[in-house]
Design a protein that fits this description.
Number of helices: 1
Radius of gyration: 20 Å
Helix content: under 10%
Shape: extended
Number of strands: 8
Length: 153
């Protein structure tokens, strides 16, 4: 039986890494950086996906990367929502003092929905089916957080 030596060190390890989301989401994030929302449409059934995808979930048709892109407006419809005291994007402090409203928003012209905070609204004015406008970060970076959330039209 051989003897094993275990070496330990105290200190920090810096781990550099790059995260790539793929070609379809890369195009989507590039558009967000320009304060634009884009989706892609299935060439077979015509469904428009936001965020974009490679394969249509309805008919399994492959959606070509260089075709079928659709520019969409910064408006949408609230499909559903929840009110929570838990922070959606901050893992350090999970429970907040104030509640926030998080909505499922279908962008006009799209067939799928995205989930974002509903901003500057009291719970009693939030109604399923209400029209919403996108609220952009002042200096977008090509990241999902470039959309701060949605406000009432």
């Amino acid at each position: 039986m051989s003897e094993k030596v275990v070496v330990t060190n105290n200190g920090f390890v810096r781990a550099e890494f790059a995260f790539w989301v793929g070609q379809y989401m890369d195009k989507f994030y590039d558009a967000l950086e320009s304060k634009k929302i884009i989706g892609n449409s299935c060439p077979k059934c015509g469904k428009v996906f936001i965020p974009p995808r490679k394969i249509c979930g309805g008919c399994n048709e492959e959606i070509a990367l260089d075709e079928n892109w659709v520019d969409l407006p910064g408006t949408g419809t609230l499909l559903n929502y929840t009110i929570t005291n838990y922070k959606v994007s901050d893992r350090a402090a999970r429970k907040g003092k104030n509640s926030q409203i998080v909505g499922i928003v279908q962008i006009d012209g799209g067939d799928t929905a995205i989930i974002y905070p509903l901003l500057n609204m009291e719970p009693d004015v939030v109604k399923i089916g209400m029209k919403l406008n996108v609220v952009w970060e002042e200096k977008p970076k090509g990241h999902p957080s470039d959309i701060k959330g949605f406000s009432k039209v």
